[in-house]
Amino acid sequence: MLRASPSSTIEAWGALGASHAVTTADPAAVDHLLRASFANYNRGAQFRAAQSDLIGDGLFGADGRLWSLQRKLASYAFSSRSLRRFTEDVLTVHLGRRFLPFLDAAAGSGEAVDLQEALRRFAFDNICHVAFGVESSTLLEWGDPRHQALFAAFDTAVEISFMRTLNAPTPVRKLTKLLNIGQSRRLREAVGVIDDHAMSVIEAKGVSQRNSRDEGDPDLLSRFMAAMDEEDGGGDLAAMFPTPEARRRFLRDVVVSFVLAGKDTTTSALTWFFWLLAANPRCEQRVHDEVSRSPDGNVKGMHYLHAAITEAMRLYPPVPFNGRIAVADDVLPDGTVVRAGWFANYSAYAMGRMEKLWGENFMEFAPERWLGDSGEFAPVDAARYPVFHAGPRACLGKEMAYMQMKTVASAVLRRVRLNVGGTG
């Protein structure tokens, strides 16, 4: 539909006019929504209501002052120094001692492995380590029913919350919540499992802080816990959560938000990357040749690998659809009117599949489109490629995500060849 629209923008109405949305795949409109008119588009009450059980007041559902304070605090955890620690410490532990031995065992046995699930567990263990300073080994403890229940709970809660975002609250939804039946019961049970895990992370972090005199860079959770510290009087952020229970609940929201941000995004990107390489032997060979020239695993100069991962996310972005709510009436650059209260969405998935943006070979996996004449990676404007969002809400973890994906990909491709479906 977006391809067929001359402006690459469409409008949609909900049943009986319950909702109204404008969705675009036009870079100029995306730039308008995410940068030029950033202040006029926020998450909105409907999003917060639909997502409140899952992410509460966490960074990804917050607006205004609550958002800006969290954003500033979280940004310190993604500094250059933190990035070096991530690659030198966290990746060494989880990649070298866990993920690669796991693949070696699978290759030795000749059995098929669910690579997406393995990558998800690897990413989950990584985010728990780097963001919370808490060790997790769900990859090695594959058969542990507690891990299976936790991942199932996240899947259920995300699915139900997302579908609720698309539909305005109804009396039926309120009734099911009151009676604790149907989807409301499934959501409540799933969130209960997630809550137990999040609070265990917070408790473990509290014990670690009391027993440690580590003077290194604090991790993300440590920074948020310090901001909530009553003995220090707190600050603007702490003032928004005046009671101990409210502060604990907020820390829970922080944990859940960053688990969601770090668990499935890189997992999705790497899964599609490996799948696309398996379907394109020429590209696989070029990546293999490049990573083989760097036996020490230094990924900084691997421009073709960087291009191949970027190209995979063009076709299969980890977050294919994103949106905001208009605060006041507005007009997009193409003349489309957006009324106050309407959804204003963009589709990174559609944008990656537009001939007008990527040329005649827009449906082909072609990493070369990202390379300049000298063979170096050549990025495009984020409004044309909003895989990591754009503007003030651009992804804080972009560089860390690329570092993780390139390091994993190079290490895997130096050791094994992946066959889709376990054939060959």
TrEMBL record:
Pfam families documented for this protein: p450
Key words of the record: Heme, Iron, Membrane, Metal-binding, Monooxygenase, Oxidoreductase, Transmembrane, Transmembrane helix
GO molecular function terms noted in the UniProt entry: heme binding; iron ion binding; monooxygenase activity; oxidoreductase activity, acting on paired donors, with incorporation or reduction of molecular oxygen
Cofactor(s) required for function per UniProt: heme
Lineage start: Eukaryota, Viridiplantae, Streptophyta, Embryophyta, Tracheophyta
UniProt entry tagged with the keyword Heme: yes
InterPro entries in UniProt: Cyt_P450, Cyt_P450_CS, Cyt_P450_E_grp-I, Cyt_P450_sf
Keyword Mitochondrion: no
Secretion signal, residue range per the UniProt entry: none
Residues where heme binds: 395
Name of the protein this chain belongs to: Cytochrome P450 94A1
Organism: Triticum urartu (Red wild einkorn)
Domain of life: Eukaryota
PANTHER family (UniProt xref): CYTOCHROME P450 (PTHR24296)
GO BP term, example: lipid metabolic process
Family: Belongs to the cytochrome P450 family.
Gene3D superfamilies named among the record's database cross-references: Cytochrome P450 (1.10.630.10)
